[in-house]
């Protein structure tokens, strides 16, 4: 078996077979074992790089990114049990843990002064094949930058076959290049979308073609200018059931894919719920965003009155209303730099009205970063202590966020007014058109990369950070009411806003 076709499991000490061990004979550590990347997976990885970054081969920071370099880098990462390697091998007298730079250099016989680990990490992360992480050295316990292969891009001897990319054929429209929205599947946010010709989906009206994801098997059919999601092969998030048989424009699917979460795109239609805060067009700020502590935004409710049964008396509309606490179940720890997951490109972001006031400065000072993902650009600026990254975020976009769910109960299943309280002060109030559990879960339970950006409502970030970072002093209280008009009036009085209808 050639050296490049070995499987790396773990390092072992190899002793002679004889019972008598010659101490003059050195003991050798087994060579690194690599399992070759399947040709179909390599072709898919290269096509993903072609669509999301640029056509191969191309130059980046003096390194020529080729199909071979992509394959070798992925094999080095896949060979590790954790699918993770440090970017650089530390130069110490004692044997150090091998980094990605040394692993790739040995595989391709590169000189020591040529390191392509930084470039390949950037390429694989921008393409969604890998992600940045931290690596802890087993000996010194020092932390260093690392890269991890995404689970969807790992393989082993029993891996399921990878779907082949479509081959050229004579069907009409086959030569049409993929649309921009097809570079990232909005369902799994991993695969890419391809047009499939010459086949029909069972129970679906005849179409010239349909669009299928190379990873999760999600299928879309064209409907004039829109595309309808008609099938999901693997449902990882139940919220995707709400998008099945829904038709959106390509721009809306792009919004869903880049939001790093399953969101519903904005659309016009019949009024479905009421909003307490008036909807106003986005306008660029006159100056830098001011980072206000999440707890400092306090509603003018008067003195809150804690009751013996745990409820809260709230003076509103010349009377006292009683709000009962609801239990929040937190999962996992706090997450930093959530905005780093944003998939949109920097050059695309500054071309939109929300960031037009940053365009001149970005093009002048950060021209080399324009082709990068916006999230990666912001993460690198933060790592280098450049405050410019904050101008792309809402005032609470750089907080630490968590995940929680609302406990099932009779109260959480009702409608009414909810109140967020921290340190004995009312910090936010709202009206729940759906059940409390649905509203709180949808609005605040999880923060995506898109929620952190400047053109999004920072309230979601503020409330999530407030609840997850102040678990002992912050809570949500509920006042159930089946009278919609009264609930809207109460919530409006608490927030100081006049309720308006929004689609």
What can you see in these coordinates?
There is one protein chain. The chain has 503 residues and is of the alpha+beta class. The protein folds into three domains: 3-153, no CATH class; 180-258, no CATH class; 294-335 and 399-502, 3-Layer(aba) Sandwich (GIY-YIG endonuclease). It is built from eleven helices and 22 strands. The strands form seven sheets. A six-stranded antiparallel beta sheet has the order 14-15-16-21-19-20, sandwiched between helices. Strands 8-9-10-11-12 form a five-stranded antiparallel beta sheet. A hairpin with a 2-residue loop joins strand 15 and strand 16. The chain starts with 12 loop residues before the first strand and ends with a strand.
Strand percentage lies at 15-25%
Q: Work out the count of structural domains.
A: 3
Range of helix content: 10-25%
The radius of gyration computed from the alpha-carbon positions, rounded to a whole number of angstroms, is: 27 Å
| Structure class | alpha+beta
Strands, total number: 22
Mean pLDDT: 77
**Given the C-alpha coordinates, what overall shape results?**
globular
Distance between the termini: 63 Å
Could you name the ranges where pLDDT drops below 50 across 5 or more consecutive residues?
1-30, 167-172, 266-291, 499-503
The largest sheet has its strands arranged as 14-15-16-21-19-20
Q: What count of helical segments does DSSP give? A: 11
Q: Sheet with the most strands?
A: 6 strands, antiparallel
């Amino acid at each position: 078996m050639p050296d490049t076709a070995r499987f790396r499991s773990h390092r072992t000490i190899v002793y002679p077979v004889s019972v008598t061990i010659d101490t003059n004979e050195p003991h050798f550590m087994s060579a690194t074992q690599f399992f070759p990347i399947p040709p179909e997976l390599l072709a898919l990885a290269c096509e993903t790089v072609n669509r999301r970054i640029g056509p191969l081969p191309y130059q980046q920071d003096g390194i020529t990114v080729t199909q071979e370099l992509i394959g070798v880098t992925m094999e080095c990462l896949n060979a590790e049990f954790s699918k993770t390697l440090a970017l650089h091998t530390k130069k110490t007298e004692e044997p150090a843990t091998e980094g990605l730079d040394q692993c790739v250099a040995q595989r391709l016989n590169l000189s020591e002064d040529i390191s392509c680990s930084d470039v390949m990490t950037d390429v694989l992360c921008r393409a969604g094949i890998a992600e940045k992480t931290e690596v802890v050295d087993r000996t010194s316990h020092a932390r260093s930058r690392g890269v991890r292969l995404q689970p969807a891009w790992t393989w082993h001897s029993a891996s399921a076959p990878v779907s082949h990319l479509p081959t050229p054929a004579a069907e009409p429209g086959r030569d049409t290049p993929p649309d921009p929205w097809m570079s990232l599947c909005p369902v799994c946010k991993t695969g890419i979308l391809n047009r499939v010709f010459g086949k029909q989906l069972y129970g679906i009206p005849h179409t010239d073609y349909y669009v299928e994801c190379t990873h999760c098997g999600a299928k879309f059919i064209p409907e004039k200018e829109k595309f309808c999601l008609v099938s999901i092969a693997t449902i990882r998030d139940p919220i995707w059931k709400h998008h099945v048989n829904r038709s959106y424009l390509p721009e809306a699917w792009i919004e869903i894919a880049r939001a790093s979460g399953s969101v519903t795109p904005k659309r016009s239609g019949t009024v479905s719920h009421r909003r307490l805060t008036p909807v106003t067009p986005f306008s660029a700020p006159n100056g830098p965003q001011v980072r206000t502590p999440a707890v400092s935004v306090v509603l003018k409710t008067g003195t809150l009155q804690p009751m013996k049964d745990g409820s809260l008396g709230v003076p509103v509309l010349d009377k006292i209303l009683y709000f009962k606490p609801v239990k929040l179940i937190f999962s996992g720890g706090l997450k930093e730099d959530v905005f780093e997951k944003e998939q949109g490109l920097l050059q695309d972001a500054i071309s939109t009205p929300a960031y037009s006031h940053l365009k001149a400065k970005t093009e002048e000072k950060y021209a080399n970063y324009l082709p990068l993902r916006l999230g990666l650009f912001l993460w690198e600026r933060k790592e280098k202590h450049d405050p410019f990254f904050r101008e792309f975020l809402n005032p609470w976009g750089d907080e630490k966020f968590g995940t929680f769910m609302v406990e099932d109960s009779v109260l959480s299943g009702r409608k009414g007014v909810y109140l967020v309280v921290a340190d004995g002060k009312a910090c936010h109030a709202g009206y729940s058109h759906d059940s409390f559990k649905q509203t709180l879960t949808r609005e605040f339970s999880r923060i995506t990369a898109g929620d952190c950006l400047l053109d999004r409502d920072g309230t979601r970030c503020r409330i999530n950070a407030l609840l997850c970072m102040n678990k002992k002093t912050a809570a949500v209280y509920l006042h159930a009411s089946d009278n919609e008009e009264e609930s809207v009036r109460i919530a409006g009085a608490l927030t100081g806003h006049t309720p308006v209808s929004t689609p």
